[in-house]
Amino acid sequence: MAAFDPSAELSPQPGYRLVADSFATLLWDRGVLEGTVNWLSTNGYQIVSVPAGSWQSTADMHRDIAQALDFPGSYGTTARGQRTDQSGSRQPARQR
Prior knowledge:
This protein has 96 residues and is mostly helical. Helix content is 31%, strand content 6%. The protein has helices at 14-19, 30-42, 58-68; strands spanning 82-84, 90-92. A two-stranded antiparallel sheet has the order 1-2. The longest helix is centred in the middle third of the chain and has 13 residues, at 30-42. It is extended and about 45 Å long. The mean pLDDT is 76.
């Protein structure tokens, strides 16, 4: 997590602007996205790319993000070890 100086004026750096209001930012312009990713990469941020073109469900999204970020096998399970699938039903968690 990046550290920002709370006594400094609002920073013009993309790293700060991306998280100022929320940790999720939607960029509609491909050029702005590419410029931001380039700036972040050049300034030491780790970039993790997760292709979303084949996702058919939120379960697909969670599976791929968990794999890309190396989440533990317990990610997405309840306290009782059940996993919620895209239909909302509870399924036993798979072992990693």
